[in-house]
Design a protein that fits this description.
9-stranded antiparallel β-sheet, alpha+beta, globular, 2 domains, 27 strands
Length: 397
């Protein structure tokens, strides 16, 4: 048996909110023992370093992962721009463990042995009948390239484990992203959680963005910087497609960055996925280069993408249904990683997304807005997403 429960507190200070959310989530678990806590807190709170300890006083010694939210935490009935979310997975049918790694290089080579330790734990769990393994990865967005993170995790954990998780956010200040690890709130660590069950967890990602421009080819890139597309300055090509799609990009640099991030992003062909990967712009340079949320290799085929509220909400509902089907249809609950860009694009309709997911699943739902989403189900290759809703459903046995 597996139980999932969650609670959101909007108390005024972080200590009260952490204790209240943890206590309410624990009560909802009934007699089931918590095995893993997924915790997200608004970066506007002070005293976030105390949050793991405060939750431990309510729950006991339970592995804990998560970090700062990127604009909101939510459940199926409310969206809280400022609050603490505690989601619990527990019961006799699940085992969980966490490992951490320092952010020591852009390639995150220290994450590889951490992933290997999780793989060893997965092997031990398999011997005890818990044959399905899910790795959940969390890192601070402003310090980590999402593609580098998933590459390091996959190298260590191998292809057997499904992947889910997020680059945690900071309410668009770009200086406060923290993960919960080693008893505190850290900006220099990656934390991984292994979740081991008898029945497979369901992992699905959808975004609903549609191509509005022609296919282009990346002709120059350096890491996360997109330099040239079709031999021309990347930003010039991007803006030409936006204007051709009746967009009206502002002239101010910061306003333009937010406008593109919320309305016109770059899609990258991904043969193993239903939709192209979407990449959000993170910075603009005077030479027309655009820093993306993750690197795009030279030779990649790309197109400018746009999304409507209707398409985005339909996509998240489809992700919920896919996730439930992949979990075998009988689930205890779901955690949702929704890009902060979706909240900005949906504006006052964002609450319809978690509510629609909850209706589609007919199960408890909780989640957080983040700055980069991780999802790789079995038989998929690509794992890092932007402006996407990732739904992770947990089986009930």
């Amino acid at each position: 048996m597996i139980r999932f429960s969650a609670a959101v507190s909007t108390a005024r200070d972080s200590a009260e909110a952490a204790r209240e959310a943890a206590a309410r989530a624990r009560i909802s678990m009934g007699s089931a023992m918590p095995r893993l806590a997924i915790v997200f807190a608004s970066p506007a709170y002070e005293g976030l370093d105390r949050v793991p300890h405060l939750i431990e006083t309510e729950l006991g010694s339970v592995p804990l992962v998560g970090g700062t939210s990127g604009g909101a935490v939510f459940d199926g009935s409310c969206v809280a721009p400022r609050g603490v979310l505690v989601a619990l997975i527990g019961g006799d049918g699940v085992r969980a463990t966490t490992v951490t790694a320092p952010i020591g290089s852009p390639e995150l080579i220290d994450v590889v042995p951490a992933g290997s330790r999780l793989l060893a734990e997965a092997d031990r769990a398999s011997h005890d009948g818990l044959e399905e393994a899910l790795c959940m990865a969390f890192a601070p967005a402003v310090h980590v390239d999402g593609e580098a993170l998933v590459a390091a995790v996959r190298k260590g954990a191998g292809p057997r484990m499904q992947l889910a998780g997020a680059l945690v956010g900071d309410d668009f200040t770009f200086d406060r992203a923290l993960i919960f690890a080693e008893g505190g709130a850290r900006h220099d660590r990656v934390v991984l959680a292994g979740v081991f069950t008898r029945t497979r967890a369901g992992v699905a990602a959808r975004h609903g963005w549609r191509a509005v421009g022609p296919v282009h080819v990346v002709t120059r890139s350096e890491g996360a910087w997109l330099l040239e597309v079709d031999g021309r300055r990347a930003l010039d090509v991007w803006l030409a497609d936006v204007r051709a799609a009746d967009g009206n990009p502002p002239s101010d640099r910061q306003e333009l960055l937010l406008y593109l991030a919320n309305h016109y992003e770059m899609g990258v062909e991904a043969p193993t996925l239903i939709e192209p990967l979407v990449r959000a712009p993170m910075a603009l340079r005077d030479d027309g280069a655009v820093r993306l949320s993750a690197g795009v290799a030279e030779g990649s085929r790309v197109r400018v993408m746009r999304a409507s509220a209707r398409d985005m909400l339909e996509a998240s509902r489809q992700a919920a249904e896919m996730s439930r089907e992949r979990a075998g249809g009988s689930i205890s609950g779901a955690f949702v990683f929704s890009c902060s860009g979706r909240r900005a694009a949906l504006a006052d309709r964002f609450g319809e997304e978690p509510a629609g997911i909850a209706r589609a699943l007919d199960a408890p739902v909780a989640g957080a807005c983040v700055f980069g989403e991780i999802a790789r189900a079995h038989r998929e290759i690509d794992a890092f997403h932007n402006t996407t809703a990732v739904v992770v459903t947990y089986p009930d046995e």
